[in-house]
Amino acid sequence: MAAMRFTATLCVLLHIVVICNAGVTSSYVRKSEPSIDMPVGSFPPPTGNNAPEQVHITQGDHVGRGVIISWVTPLLKHPNVVTYWEAEGKHKRRAHSTITSYRYYNYSSGYIHHATIRNLKYDTRYFYELGTHHVTRRFSFTTPPKVGPDVPYTFGVMGDLGQTYDSNQTLEHYVSNPKGQAVLFVGDLSYADNYPFHDNVKWDTWGRFVEKSTANQPWIWTAGNHELDFAPEIEEYEPFKPYLHRYHVPYKASQSTSPLWYSIKRASTYIIVLSSYSAYGKYTPQYEWLSQEFPKVNRSETPWLIVLLHSPWYNSNNYHFMEGESMRVMFESWFVENKVDLVFSGHVHSYERSDRVSNVKYNITDGLSAPVKDPSAPVYITIGDGGNIEGLANSFTQPQPSYSAYREASFGHAILEIKNRTHAYYTWHRNQDSEPVAADSTWFYNRFWYPMDETSSSTNMV
Ligand SMILES: *[C@@H]1O[C@H](CO)[C@@H](O)[C@H](O)[C@H]1NC(C)=O
Ligand SMILES: *[C@@H]1O[C@H](CO)[C@@H](O)[C@H](O)[C@H]1NC(C)=O
Ligand SMILES: *[C@@H]1O[C@H](CO)[C@@H](O)[C@H](O)[C@H]1NC(C)=O
Ligand SMILES: *[C@@H]1O[C@H](CO)[C@@H](O)[C@H](O)[C@H]1NC(C)=O
Ligand SMILES: *[C@@H]1O[C@H](CO)[C@@H](O)[C@H](O)[C@H]1NC(C)=O
Ligand SMILES: [Fe+2]
To answer: In the chain, which residues have pLDDT < 50?
Structure first.
């Protein structure tokens, strides 16, 4: 491993890189160690009686002028107020939260607050304060630039994070990179359901663990299977109960009828979030919503069309192999017709990037069922490698299928830098390297404005 790290360092120093056209299975082999959760006490509640904790923000409207601010007060409902002001201004405004709480088996949540603040200025830094004079906690965020075709914007991408020592490294790497302005999170947050009785205390510790990022920049949430918390054996019959109480999203702003699927515009992107674990067959609410969603995307306004969904459609790992297949069958032709640029998924605890392929010819009599290169198809990225308690998915199918451009069983995160309407630079960072090292990087060319072949632009640090 030391030699491997030395080679990687040398590559950086000498700019020796491997240009990859054929599919690559990384030769980087991570030591297989058990993934261990950080002790519950690693992220204690903030000091002070009833101090607001587990602070997180997400986009609060369709265009980026709203923010949903969420937090938990453990003992008392009040104060249920957030005070916020422009960093350059003095005028303070206040917004009240709606308060919810829930029981899960024998767990009772604290008071969960959600306050939506609206009509903010674009591209502006704001401060906000929670709590009262005894325990006031102050945070800040920056609103995105006005929606438009050539607005640069940089996203972090993470999934399947959990709360192990590996998760801590993933988050630390992301936070230490000043580039990321918002996170696209592809599902599976706390992994509380891996504990007896789905110990919901793990939802609280997770909220405190990620706060150093989630309080200061929006995380765009996607629901994964670990958000289901469906447990009839302990009489918990309501799917997504903890998740839906704790994580609010602006679904009504995109005419969705469920927080599990929705869309937002942010800078030069149009982001569609889907639910792998809600009905998507023909005539279902999610199907009907998505059918009406694609025509609303105006690529002159938001050139970049990105989809987030938990269970990947193109996955050459033996873990969760073909679990995304039924959703692919339903929706892939729409993705190709509408020239989706990128699809990010999680679920599989490793990393994989596909070529632009589609597999939409098949009907039950023609026998055509192999993926083919397709310049109108998205690139599919599996990034369920946040580092949760279940460990790495380190068993790939052999040989590497032709659709798979790069795959590696390591934990990490990605950065997507949208430069303008034609170009975006993408880097995936494995945890074992220092944060500035990109193990897999490539230019993405926009499918609407510049549908050129990108395959020669990728670089791997193996
Ligand atoms: C919930 O029940 C489990 C199993 O009986 C027990 O170990 C745990 O301490 C209980 N938690 C609370 C908050 O009562
Ligand atoms: C998590 O990472 C931070 C930053 O590197 C470190 O200070 C902290 O000790 C880590 N926490 C645990 C429980 O290892
Ligand atoms: C698409 O967006 C462009 C740029 O904002 C605008 O000029 C045009 O009218 C929009 N088209 C439609 C159909 O709304
Ligand atoms: C299925 O594919 C066959 C062979 O290409 C074609 O003849 C037939 O029309 C297709 N059926 C439908 C319903 O599209
Ligand atoms: C878009 O960004 C790319 C990469 O930075 C650059 O090469 C290209 O010239 C830019 N296009 C325009 C029209 O500015
Ligand atoms: Fe999952």
So the answer is: 1-21
